[in-house]
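To the wet lab folks,

You asked to see what we're planning to order before we commit. Fair enough. Below is the target structure as C-alpha cells, and below that is the sequence we designed to fit it. If anything looks off to you, flag it before the synthesis order goes out.
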C-alpha cells in the first residue's frame, strides 16, 4: 500500500529511483552523465535537499536551480521525457497531497526551464543568478 511522502527517507527513495530511470533513458543519460560525470553522489544529495525543501517544507536547499541548466543542449522533448519519468516514479512510490504537489512542482519547473532555455538559445543575454 502506497503512502504520501512524509520524511527524508521518502525523498531519498524518490530521488534515487527517479535518477536510476534517467541514467537508463536513451535520450537523457548522455546529457546527465556528460554534465555530472563522477559527481553523481553530490548531485543526488543536492536533489534530495531540493525536493526536501519542496515536499517537506524543510528548507535545506540553497541555490538557484535554473542556472546550471541554462545552457544545456535540451529541447521540449527532453523535458517531456524527464517529466514522464518523474511523474511515473512518484506514482509508483507514493500517493497523497505531497506527492501531488511534487508532481505539480516538477511540471512547473520543466515548463519554466524549457521556456527559459529556449529564450537563451536565441538571445545573447546571460542568465542571472
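Sequence we intend to order:
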Amino acid at each position: 500500500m502506497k503512502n504520501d511522502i512524509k520524511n527524508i527517507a521518502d525523498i531519498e527513495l524518490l530521488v534515487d529511483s527517479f535518477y536510476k530511470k534517467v541514467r537508463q533513458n536513451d535520450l537523457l543519460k548522455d546529457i546527465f552523465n556528460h554534465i555530472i560525470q563522477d559527481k553523481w553522489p553530490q548531485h543526488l544529495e543536492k536533489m534530495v535537499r531540493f525536493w526536501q525543501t519542496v515536499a517537506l517544507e524543510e528548507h535545506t536547499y540553497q541555490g538557484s536551480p535554473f542556472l546550471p541548466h541554462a545552457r544545456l543542449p535540451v529541447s521540449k522533448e527532453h523535458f517531456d521525457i524527464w517529466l514522464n519519468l518523474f511523474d511515473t516514479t512518484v506514482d509508483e512510490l507514493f500517493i497523497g497531497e505531497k506527492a501531488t504537489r511534487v508532481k505539480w512542482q516538477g511540471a512547473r519547473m520543466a515548463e519554466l526551464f524549457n521556456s527559459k532555455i529556449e529564450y537563451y538559445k536565441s538571445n545573447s543575454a546571460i542568465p542571472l543568478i
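Structural context that might help your review: The chain is about 65% helix and 0% strand. Helices lie at 8-22, 29-36, 40-56, 76-93, 97-121.

Thanks,
Computational group
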